[in-house]
Design goal:
The chain is an alpha+beta fold. It contains 8 helices and 7 strands; from the N terminus they run ααβααβααααβββββ. Among the domains are: 78 residues, no CATH class; 47 residues, no CATH class.
């Protein structure tokens, strides 16, 4: 399937564009008309506005155009726009990424200005009664069950589990006269 209006915009005789027959007979995919100029210049990818300014965009001959599937078109531009392609992370960067466990914000803190902005954005907003009621009904009858290593909050006890929580090695301890919950 092709957009005839789009094809006419680029070429008067759009039936001569490469892949026309395949694109026309494909009922599931909408093929896109693309300029070959961008395919021939792998190092220099001109912008649409540059092509228009140089009269290389509209009313081109059929040999200068090609029909591409959306995935082919995306791959063509995604590889060009990906500025990290072909590069590798340094050992220092890999170490930092592994420490943060994939969370880019870990170890960072909001500024006072950002905290105040968040406070003002959420000020006075509480869950409405319908939301609270829906959660209350959903949680009715649910209990914590454990098998010693994992905990589940469910309605019925799974096989091999018993009522309670494992706490996974955590306990109350007396530290400097104060009870603290720790490992």
């Amino acid at each position: 399937m092709i957009s005839i209006n789009q094809a006419k915009k680029f070429c008067k005789d759009y039936t001569q564009i490469e892949n026309y027959e395949v694109a026309k007979n494909d009922p599931n995919t909408k093929w896109e008309c693309h300029h070959r100029y961008e395919l021939k210049c792998p190092l220099f990818k001109p912008l649409v506005k540059d092509l228009i300014a140089n009269n290389l965009y509209y009313d081109r001959s059929a040999e200068e155009l090609i029909f591409l599937t959306p995935s082919e078109h995306h791959k063509l531009h995604a590889t060009y726009n990906n500025r990290f392609k072909g590069k590798k992370h340094s050992e220092e960067t890999k170490k930092i990424m592994s420490l943060h466990g994939g969370n880019a914000f870990r170890g960072k803190h909001h500024t006072e200005e950002a905290k105040q902005k968040n406070r003002l954005a959420h000020l006075g907003k509480k869950h409405d009664e319908a939301f609270c009621e829906k959660n209350r009904i959903r949680n009715l009858g649910r209990k914590w069950y454990t098998d010693g290593t994992t905990d589940r909050f469910v309605h019925e006890c799974p096989a091999g589990f018993w009522l309670g929580r494992s706490h996974l090695g955590k306990s109350w301890k007396l530290v400097d006269g104060v009870r603290k919950y720790s490992n």
